Amino acid sequence: MKVRLPQGMGGGAQNMNQMIKQAQKMQEKITAVQEDIESRSFTTSTGGGAVEITMTGAKELTSIKIKPEVVDANDVEMLEDLIMSAFNECVSQIAATAEKEMSEVTGGVSIPGIL
Fold it and tell me: Which domain holds residue 44?
């Protein structure tokens, strides 16, 4: 009994080689996007600019700026909250940028573990 594949599903080795080449090109693009994002700086601030945090796309903290007027020995918790909020916002900004740019490369297909 012979089985017929739907049109476009055959092609044997030639079709498989084409798919492999496409996958390799996508991997190269993904790597380039990852490297680009990791080399960029992302900055966020909280408290009306009272705390500003800068991180690389690789999520390495490179700068924290705190305005002197928000340093209050009697209210350390407020400063801690501002720093934590700015840090978390910066991490979210990096993740959103990575997701958007990876989606453009992968055509919207989510590939686990690429960032």
Answer: 28-101
Model pTM score: 0.75
Distance CA(98)–CA(115), nearest Å, equals 7
76: domain CATH number?
3.30.1310.10
Give me the numbers of helices (H) and strands (E) for the chain, helices first please. Answer: 2, 3
Q: What is the pLDDT of residue 70?
A: 92
Spatial separation of the C-alpha atoms in residues 69 and 78, rounded to whole Å: 12
The backbone torsions φ and ψ at residue 75, rounded to the nearest 5 degrees and listed phi first, read -140, 60
Query: Contact 101/29 with Cβ under 8 angstroms?
Result: no
DSSP line for 15-42: HHHHHHHHHHHHHHHHHHHHHHHHHSEE
For the chain, what is the mean pLDDT?
Answer: 88
